[in-house]
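Hi everyone, sorry if this is the wrong subforum. Our group has a chain we'd like a structural model of before ordering constructs, and none of us has done structure prediction before. Sequence below.
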Amino acid sequence: MNVIIRQEKLEDINEVYDVVQKAFEDAYYSDHDEHHLVKRLRNSASYVPELSLVAECRNRIVGHILFTEIKVGNHTLIALAPVAVLPEMQSKGIGKLLIMEGHKIAAQRGYKGSVVMGHDKYYPKFGYKKASSYGIKAPFDVSDDHFMAVELIEGGLTDVHGVVEYAKEFFEN
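Answer:
Right subforum, don't worry. Here is the predicted structure as tokens:
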């Protein structure tokens, strides 16, 4: 299976919307708003076009990932939300490819770290660990096991402490 990871283009927007919606349609842990969240975040000051990536297989978009800027104290980091893969393409390593390429681009752009709220069995595969171990806290009530952070640059989170400030679009409907 040949999968290409590339930056999202303007003409991809509708297909990405469908991919994200289908990816979370039957997810029990979801509020089923992820496709709208992506749309809101694209219009946000926190949006980084280079960190909106798609996975393409046989000229069809099968996955999408979005990282947006967040603040923790005086530091600008990124938040991974969401990563979406079409249900029939899940468990084939596409999410892994999206995350790894996103981390690589983010590090090249100078981002020191990323946070994610997600599965405590999945994200540690990519170096994520409890954000609290870095002194990073969520601005909402969430299990310590599910709010995680990763250093994208070695030692990047050493002096980062505080509560994450997400783009306001995360909290709109």
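For your construct planning: The mean pLDDT is 94. Residues 94-108 form the longest helix (15 residues).
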